[in-house]
Amino acid sequence: MNLLDIVFPKSCVICKRKGEYLCRRCHKLFKRELPECYVCRRLSNGYRTHEECRDRYSMDSVFVAWEYNSLTSDLLKKYKYGYAYDMSEVLCKFFTESIRSSSYWKMLKDTLVINMPISSSRLKERGFNQTYDLAKRISIEFNLDFSDSLVGKSGGSEHQALKDKEERREISTNSFYIRKEIDISKYRSITIVDDVITTGSTLNAIAKKIRLHYGDSISINAMCMFRGKPVYYSSDSEVSSC
User: Fold this and answer.
1) What are phi and psi of 62, to 5 degrees?
2) Which of 160, 188, 202, 220 could link 110 by a cystine bridge, Cβ 3.0 to 4.6 Å?
3) What is the value of pTM for the model shown?
């Protein structure tokens, strides 16, 4: 135990039990997400995007570990905005366990892992990019190549949560760029790691930049920790799967 742990002892964000920012007992309260198509939110084998939901720049699949709700929201806010940098270790551990306990890890063979980039102003404001830690840990756990320099993000530090869906979509499309040329010929896919997915427009924007630069032959996937419950507008819609 280091000096900081003695002066400022860690406690579980949820139950306040001393020891870790997230104890294993409270982690069991996380609700696992079912495999689904990230576009229509209907069930899909292997988290694959349904063919009828795809366009040229869609993600091929998006793995989501847990439901984003009031419980997980409190935890994530503490991590991202409460300067609880040490929380990265426990979140990375539980996230990799979630991936390994699913069948999705088999799809990671020969993939290049990248993190969700943030702007320099946001990095300065927050002090770290939480998705870098997640992506780096995944690459180590599954023996995969990792890059934090393929895609960059421009723009200011204004929070996306303050914008409506149309504003987010426009900003996302124009904010990303290919930061560094990388030989991707040895990879079957590129996997983007993020903490939360909402509409998926940000992931689509990154996929578009990559495909416009490198062509359509590369598969692009994502792995995210959290996503909110789906909202279905038609009560008699059938659940599809493929």
Assistant:
1) -140, 115
2) 188
3) 0.84
